[in-house]
Specification:
By secondary structure, the chain is an alpha/beta fold. It is 32% helix and 24% strand.
């Protein structure tokens, strides 16, 4: 048998070994040419910046959330919910009061506290919005099991919760209490009902609602923040403010936001304009001026048929508090069903938000990825 030189045998063996390693890399690591399921690809895109590369802070929060840590809590904030008029008609036609929420479950996945603005009272009154007054709302008590399924708390500080007077407001509060849901805020900024405190895994989270459309009374919320601040890990203000359909905040919104943060608020979640407004960072705190609609029947424009969900994860390790945000663009169909936006709409929304918000370049790039890192007040 013919003998081969020893050095050729060694080279051949090394080449074979390199081939095996290449195959292993190809099949074991993402992006190495392996065929991926659409579900896996969508999961990557939903947390990355659209290019498949996970942002560093997104990796950090994902790792922390996955760990078995005793002190963590998650909140999801969405915008305006209106359950009368065409939303009510569609629910009745389908024989399902949960119809508008059928595609919304993934928005709240794993959240301890989903929170929204409830744009009207829950009463036993008959709907009049399609008969004589389209701007007077009442929500059927039949919605209560559905709301309980998806939400923990609601702001009642808006211009529709008094549509059936003080009696309608009182009935709303009673129904929410009996169903085990929290509420906060008052349409008249009654200081007895401005806030509530929710608790989870050692965290105390103060929620305060503020209605500024009839009277701008920021001093009431300033006093409420000062009352909440010493006893809460996180203070969130939920103002109902601004100009309908305006894509940027007014000077009054901006001035009030600064007053609230100066007083000790950690986060501001705005509602009412029915469209998404820009984001600001002031003293390290995020101001989401308007989340836009969530469940509504304003089908007349693209802007009124989209919104934002803001997910906030609070994590405490070794005595250190951290907070992480995810910006989740939402679309609303002509069936008034809310769901996470597809990748194209998600990218379009985040790019618009990044381009139009007055923030640093670092924050602008983070907004494009949909992942942000915030700060907590030091008590």
């Amino acid at each position: 048998m013919e003998k081969y030189p020893k050095h050729l045998i060694i080279i051949s063996a090394l080449l074979a070994l390199a081939g095996v390693l290449a195959v292993l890399v190809f099949y074991q690591f993402p992006g190495g040419g392996r065929s991926e399921s659409p579900e896996r690809k969508q999961a990557e895109l939903s947390t990355a910046g659209g290019d498949g590369e996970e942002p560093q802070i997104a990796e950090e929060v994902d790792k922390a959330v996955e760990e078995e840590l005793p002190e963590k809590a998650s909140l999801v904030f969405v915008g305006d919910i209106m359950l009368d008029r065409n939303v009510y008609l569609k629910a009745r036609a389908k024989g399902d009061y949960g119809f508008a929420f059928k595609k919304a479950g993934s928005i709240f996945s794993g959240a301890d506290f989903p929170i929204a603005n409830l744009e009207g009272p829950i009463t036993d009154n008959k709907s009049v919005s399609l008969e004589k007054d389209r701007m007077v709302f009442t929500f059927s008590p039949e919605y209560l099991p559905v709301l309980k399924k998806y939400f923990s708390a609601f702001s009642l500080a808006n211009n529709h919760t008094l549509n059936f007077g003080q009696k309608g407001l009182a009935t709303s509060r009673q129904y929410l209490e009996e169903s085990g849901m929290e509420y906060f805020g008052d349409p008249s900024n009654d200081e007895e009902n401005l806030s509530t405190v929710i608790e989870k895994n050692g965290f105390k989270i103060g929620l305060a609602g503020y209605h500024s459309l009839y009277r701008d009374e920021p001093e009431k919320i300033v006093r409420e923040i000062e009352k909440l601040r010493p006893n809460c890990d996180l203070v969130v203000i939920f103002p109902h403010w601004g100009i309908e359909y305006a894509r940027k905040p007014s000077k009054t919104q901006a001035n009030d936001a600064r007053k609230f943060i100066d007083a000790g608020a950690d986060l501001i979640i705005g509602t009412h304009p029915h469209v998404i407004q820009t984001v600001e960072v002031y003293k390290g705190k995020y101001v989401f001026y308007s989340l836009g609609n969530f469940i509504f029947d304003q089908y007349f424009s693209k802007e009124t048929m989209e919104g934002l969900a803001i997910r906030l994860d609070l994590i405490r390790t070794g005595g250190e508090l951290k907070m992480y945000y995810r910006i989740l663009p939402v679309t609303i169909s002509k069936e008034s069903q809310a769901e996470l936006a597809g990748e194209e709409r998600r990218r379009e929304t985040l790019d618009w938000l990044a381009a139009n918000s007055e923030v640093s370049e670092t924050v602008r790039e983070e907004i494009k990825t949909g992942a942000l890192k915030g700060e907590l007040s030091v008590n």
